[in-house]
């Protein structure tokens, strides 16, 4: 029998893994993280709604003006931020960095999502701009991809051609060609590919546990929210799985997966029609669907209101 050395070992040194390791250490738990490249910087851009995040979350840029375009322009009444990767990468000295797993009371896989058939893919470029506005989605164009623009700070703007959901994912070269047809690329390129329908998993955290929102692709804010609660459960000798996947979270996740399947059935015109209806929803209903991980009633109401407002040609595809 292996001698248990740690209270918690987290396998994977991305944003979710480091958030959990940090939270466990702050609760006084003997914590280690397995990260074979602990000094490698993160190159991905992590965006989130400010109201989803713990108050002390470090951010790199803030957008108080957020727009979306479907059939018409919509102003979204929420603040959007880009997370500060360098600060999120930091760990307290009490967290031991390992090259391979060691025995622990709790071991969490935080190595990211590996399975799934529906994917979100994107190719972005960074250009010089003093803009402080975020365009969450701009569906004007081909219809099956949208443009996402977000300020990174220091007069830098990420412009990204995104395929929200396709099975299998749209090839990166096709996205690159579409992006370059819109604008001259900068020197930096960002590439995105991950599954939207990865299964829920026990003994995992972050995307590896199935945190990815099946209809939007966001997951990091959820990991940052849950990390302190998971650490507190471990300290109290409670089952952390009840925090990671509560009954309400499982119900909402199932509804979101239904939303993903509906999106996959839409053509370009149907996609624009869908998002026109979505961004016309009451802001609280938008927030419930996008961010209410345990809000069963709010998620169901958002889906119901959108369905009732949909024209007949769209409604049957949403069933």
From TrEMBL:
Q: Which InterPro entries does the entry mention?
A: FAD/NAD-bd_sf
Record's protein name: Lycopene beta-cyclase
Tell me the classification of the organism that encodes this protein: Bacteria, Bacillati, Actinomycetota, Actinomycetes, Pseudonocardiales
């Amino acid at each position: 029998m292996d001698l248990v050395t740690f209270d918690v070992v987290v396998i994977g040194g991305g944003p979710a893994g480091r958030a959990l390791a940090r939270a466990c250490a702050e609760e006084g738990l003997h914590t280690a993280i397995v990260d074979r490249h602990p000094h490698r910087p993160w190159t991905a851009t992590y965006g989130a709604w400010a109201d989803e995040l713990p108050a002390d979350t470090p951010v790199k840029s803030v957008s108080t003006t957020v727009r979306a375009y479907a059939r018409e322009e919509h102003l979204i009444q929420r603040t959007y931020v880009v997370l500060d990767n360098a600060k999120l990468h930091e760990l307290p000295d009490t967290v031991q960095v390992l090259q391979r797993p060691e025995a622990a009371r709790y071991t969490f896989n935080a190595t990211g999502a590996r399975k799934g058939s529906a994917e979100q893919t994107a190719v972005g470029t960074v250009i010089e701009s003093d803009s402080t506005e975020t365009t969450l989605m701009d569906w004007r164009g081909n219809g099956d991809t949208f443009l996402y623009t977000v300020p990174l700070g220091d007069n830098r703007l990420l412009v990204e051609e995104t395929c929200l959901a396709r099975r299998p994912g749209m090839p990166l070269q096709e996205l690159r060609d579409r992006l370059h047809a819109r604008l001259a690329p900068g020197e930096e390129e960002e590439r995105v590919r991950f599954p939207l329908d990865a299964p829920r998993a026990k003994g995992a955290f972050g995307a590896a546990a199935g945190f990815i929102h099946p209809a939007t692709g966001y997951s990091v804010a959820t990991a940052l929210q849950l990390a302190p609660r998971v650490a507190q459960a471990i300290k109290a000798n409670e089952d952390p799985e009840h925090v990671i996947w509560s009954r309400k979270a499982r119900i909402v996740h199932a509804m979101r997966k239904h939303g993903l399947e509906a999106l996959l059935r839409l053509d370009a015109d149907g996609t624009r029609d869908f998002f026109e209806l979505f961004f016309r929803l009451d802001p609280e209903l938008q927030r419930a669907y996008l961010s209410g991980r345990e809000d069963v009633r709010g998620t169901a109401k958002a889906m119901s209101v959108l369905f009732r407002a949909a024209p007949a040609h769209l409604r049957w595809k949403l069933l």
